[in-house]
Write a structure and sequence with these properties.
Blueprint lengths: L1 H4 L12 H13 L6 E5 L6 H11 L3 E6 L6 H13 L8 E6 L12 H11 L4 E5 L5 H5 L4 E5 L5 H15 L5 H11 L3 H12 L12 H11 L3 H8 L6 H13 L5 H24 L6 H15 L13 H25 L3 H15 L3 H10 L5 H13 L1
Parallel strand pairs: 1-4, 1-5, 2-3, 3-4
Helix pairs in contact: 2-3, 4-5, 7-8, 8-9, 10-11, 11-14, 12-13, 13-14, 13-15, 15-16, 17-18
């Protein structure tokens, strides 16, 4: 895939965010024990992870890389980075500790993970860099007193267009200029999304179809209309876009579809598992696991949304708003699970029949606090339940 083939090998090959690049390298070179950590903030695909890897290489540092959302507890974090916090390498080389997706930490008081990270930052013998997609998350707020924020913004559209056109030239591929411009606009600054879209387009046979009537759109709408898993699976196999773009297109369409709260929650639960599967595949390069993606979507998502009027739509929600929908939906699912366990009912019954009344009653401060204590929810739920309670009263 072009995303991997043309991944920057040097800092100067990156596009956009020059200030953040310069600041991070300067901070690494001047770092000393007792310094704050750095936290990179910005939407996916803007180069946060790539920058950390290249900066470590330029500074001659060994990188200890961990996705924080995969190690949600204090014990797991300690097991993975504890030694790197307290020691240097065998030959005295400096280590760079990178914790990606800090905003993915969740659960009951995140099981001490955030507090462990704060203590690690204060005690570490090596610099710590973190990254988060959602700057408004509770985790970012909790870590703000021990970290320096560096903001990442989408690269300018003109730079993105020139960059992808240079790749097309090296690959000997032709894509119309107006088509490239359309992909630049729809990518919303996500260079990975842009490259995947242009690569997919460049590899299609020239059969004369119009850009606004792509087979992928027709196939996705067939998937949304399907009321049988077999038909849904056949439709998904006609979608030739890269797996991450496929999940993203379905997500954007589902979020903008007007589904009931219950169906939306169930849909997002399936899509979150699909997203984790694709992320695992990208990280491990175990491409054989892709055969499970379409089956997961056809067998678990299609029964929820099939025939309910979902249509393919370009993403109209801003990325921060999409993140808020995603993160709030995770809280809804967790709340429904805790309600079902606490009151001896099914999760579907809890989310469909009980949750709307529970959220309405959360406008009462005493009820809200009793609920959080009774269900052993973390403190991040207080803000969410307060907001929901006010909106439903």
């Amino acid at each position: 895939m072009w995303v991997e083939k043309y991944r920057p090998r040097r800092l100067e090959e990156m596009i956009g965010n020059e200030h953040a690049r310069t600041m991070l390298v300067g901070w690494l070179k001047k770092w000393k024990e007792g310094s704050k950590a750095v936290i990179l903030l910005g939407p996916p695909g803007t180069g946060k992870t790539t920058l950390v890897h290249l900066a470590a290489k330029e500074c001659g540092m060994n990188l200890v890389d961990l996705n924080a959302s995969d190690a949600r507890t204090k014990e797991k974090l300690s097991r993975r980075i504890g030694e790197a916090v307290s020691t240097t390498s065998l030959f005295g080389e400096r280590i760079l500790i990178f914790l990606d997706e800090i905003d993915g930490l969740s659960g009951r008081a995140d099981y001490g993970a955030v507090e462990f990270i704060k203590q690690a930052i204060k005690a570490t013998r090596n610099p710590i860099v973190m990254a988060a997609n959602d700057p408004d998350s509770d985790q970012v707020e909790k870590l703000s007193d021990v970290s320096i924020p560096l903001w990442f913004r989408p690269p300018p559209p003109r730079e993105m267009e020139l960059y992808v056109r240079s790749i097309l030239e090296r690959e000997g591929k032709r894509v119309p200029r107006d088509t490239v411009a359309r992909y630049v606009t729809s990518s919303r600054g996500d260079i990975r999304h842009l490259m995947n879209s242009v690569q997919s387009h460049s590899e299609r046979p020239e059969d004369g179809y119009k850009d606004n009537d792509l087979p992928e759109v027709q196939a996705l709408n067939s998937f949304f209309d399907a009321t049988e898993s077999k038909v849904a699976l056949q439709a998904l196999r006609l979608v030739s876009t890269p797996p991450m773009e496929k999940v993203r297109s379905i997500f954007g369409s589902v979020v903008n579809s007007g589904l009931s709260p219950s169906d939306l929650s169930n849909s997002l639960e399936v899509l979150s598992r699909a997203d984790m599967l694709v992320g695992r595949i990208m990280k491990t390069q175990e491409w054989r696991q892709l055969r499970y993606l379409d089956g997961l979507l056809a067998n678990e998502l299609s029964p929820v949304i099939g025939g309910r009027g979902v249509r393919y739509r370009e993403e109209r929600l801003s990325w921060p708003l999409q993140l808020r929908v995603w993160n709030d939906s995770k809280k809804v699912r967790e709340l429904a699970r805790r309600l079902a366990t606490g009151f001896g009912t099914s999760r579907r019954s809890a989310s469909t029949h009980d949750l709307p009344y529970i959220l309405c009653m959360c406008g009462n401060k005493r009820f809200r606090r009793d609920l959080i204590r009774r269900l052993e929810l973390d403190e991040g739920f207080d803000k969410f339940l307060t907001k929901e309670g006010k909106e439903m009263v």
